[in-house]
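User: Fold this, then the next.

Assistant: Folding the first:
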Amino acid sequence: MSKELMDAFSALEKEKGISKEVIVEAMEAALLSAYKRNYGQSQNVEVNFDEQKGDFHVYTVKEVVANVADERFEISLDDAQSINKGYEIGDHINEEVTPSDFGRIAAQTAKQVVMQRVREAERNNIYAEYSQYQDEIIQGVVQRRDNRFVYINFGRVEAVMGHNDQIPGETYQPQDRIKVYVSKVENTTKGPQIFVSRTNAGLVKRLFEQEVPEIYDGTVEIVSIAREAGDRTKIAVKSDNPNVDPVGTTVGPRGQRVQAVVDELHGENIDVVKWEEDPSDFIANALNPAEVIAVQFDDETNPKSCIVIVPDYHLSLAIGKRGQNARLAAKLTNFKIDIKPESAVEFVDETGNEIDDPNLE
């Protein structure tokens, strides 16, 4: 029996990744519960595992005292020293009380408790494994979908992708392999719960890290991302290396790098713009492909607000379809942007005189 028990422990450790110590602890707790319930609930007992023989033993634990008040928990000094003359007051004596028929009763209780502990340990192992993937990209297989979620299998665990995390227009069929962004990992009572997304801006960032070595190693940095998933994304990039063009490096030769990301996002438009320390230059870049004549700030009223002046023929381009270009530029730069056509603006210099060549930066 002991060999069978040790073999079972080894199998659980190998197959489930659960250490023998965890299993032994669960077994000891189960046997202790069974003994107290069936043989002496009020006794002070403990269960120990003999690793050499592979057996569990039950012991009563009694404290050596001068005067015994409760025989269930105490033993007199004289009685203790009759067992071993070395005992002193305050010592604890373990006496084995394992019943002959204890194995059958204990096994029934132990099975349930052990399986519970095994499940808990397995859940913790899975949580520890997948929590490392938070804020990362992982590839999985679509299992099914219902009215609430798309369920994606990662092998040992199933992730869920809610409606807000699904790209509009994308369809997810069983057995489809897709890349998703792990937005949150929770360790719930029902096991690890993984939430993934296809709309999170982090997905775009991680995809560019995969496609652009210079972004992965930090030569080029993605400073900010503004995204309307499934339609259009703007990203701002910079490089501290004067010999590296951050936009050209990110786009890649003949646009190959950015196209790889576009393909993964099923045709989502991606604008790559250069981040500038000067807010007016950054805002002008963010409104690409529209031409910007000038950017004017109102530092006193709202330092994060500006008026952008564009040529009349570029007004609709600057605003974009349903205001998307201006909206994404504002999110990218963290400025409130008010776009006005050149014809609607009267340019003046510091003295209040009209000027023909405006420079309101």
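Now the next one, as you asked:
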Amino acid sequence: MSEPKVFLLPDLGEGLTEAELVNWLVAVGDEIRVDQPIAEVETAKSMVEVPSPYAGTVAVLHGEPGQTLDVGKPLISVTPAGATAVAPAAAPAVEPAETAEVAAEVYREEEKAGSGNVLIGYGTPGGHGVARRTRPRKSAAGTAVAEPTAPVSAAEKAADDLVLMRTRVPGKLGAVISPLVRRMARDHGVDLGELQGSGASGLIMRRDVEAVIKPSVLERPVAAPVETTPVPPITGAGAGDTDTRTGLGITGRTAVRGVRKAVAANMTRSRSEIPEATVWVDVDATALVEMRAALKKADPHHTPGLLAFIARFVTAGLKKFPELNTRIVTTEDTSGGSSQEIVAFDGVNLGFAAQTDRGLMVPSVRNADKLSARELDAEIRRLTAVVRDGKASPAELGSGTFTLNNYGVFGVDGSAAIINHPEVGILGVGRIIDKPWVVNGELAVRKVTELTLTFDHRVCDGGTAGGFLRYVADAIENPGSVMADM
């Protein structure tokens, strides 16, 4: 009887450590081929289909729809074609620890039998490594006894390098690293953003982190794990459940996960780390609305939307006020101290907020400063469709340098938005409505909108922020003259 091949849930990009299993696309007993989609999973970034690296018969599905799975844990077991299938009913008899160990060993040793396309758009090279035994052995009394951790051998380092290579994402190779490397860097205070990866295409490897950690730190013994009380899973409210603080009945409970979990964490970090300030101004957008109406009359099918024109003004404004197109980076030195620096960019990746069924997403138009209003419009429409379908890549969602937020579509005038960490500024645009406005000393009805800029006070003062905001406002009020200079 042939042992099934166990496929582990791969790193889905950006170093994400978990994913929610949305739907199985296969069932136990199905015959599958290499690269056939087997499951739909949702991460904090996007919805993706996971293809199988093996061909054969589905033996075990490791999870139920709605369950959150950890990266590196078994996803599916496949009996190779032509081999005797292992009965699915036998799966529960295998200990969870044993299953994980077998899965890890099979995944590393037999990966070369698959296509190499562990995930659509995520490449994996050939070759294999040797997995280290980490499962606790059992004593005669049946209690678990932890085995001592073996020194890291050359074979183990090679295996780690191979695992890291499997986490590549096109367009952001240097920023995608395994949970092991991220944890090592975090534990020893290494800023991964400052490392130059020695792997293929700049991939950050474990050896890169080890090279900057002092030997005394590496040799420090690992502390014993702290025992914690298990937290019960969130479930639906039963009949008669009452909130102890308010005395009101509870109608339901919703787990914070996926996109909502990522958004909550990012917004919390933004508010806790960034000393933000907000400035705003009312703008007469009549000339811009009229200019677009004239363009649409001449060419109904290729006229950019108002947001595309404003995006063009924003990128031009960021060139004049580059302080708002930066990022704050904190580094720690060998003495335990830290320092900060402002990192400037050669170009603008303009993010824009898009409301979807999965929550608020912020895709970014790469090199937006090099695009015309018509090109910006096309890319904004494309990215909006991609994120609403849940198909945006990590690079499309995590590479912005400044964000434009059109909350006017919700019928509101203004908002002091939270900066999209680690950016340093976000510009909000309110609804455009008819308002009384003084023109040449006389009262008139004009198309008015409100611009709101929230900025990181560490990178600039109010003069710079006000100058940028006034530039964009003037461009909206006099679009013809401004675009002539672009």
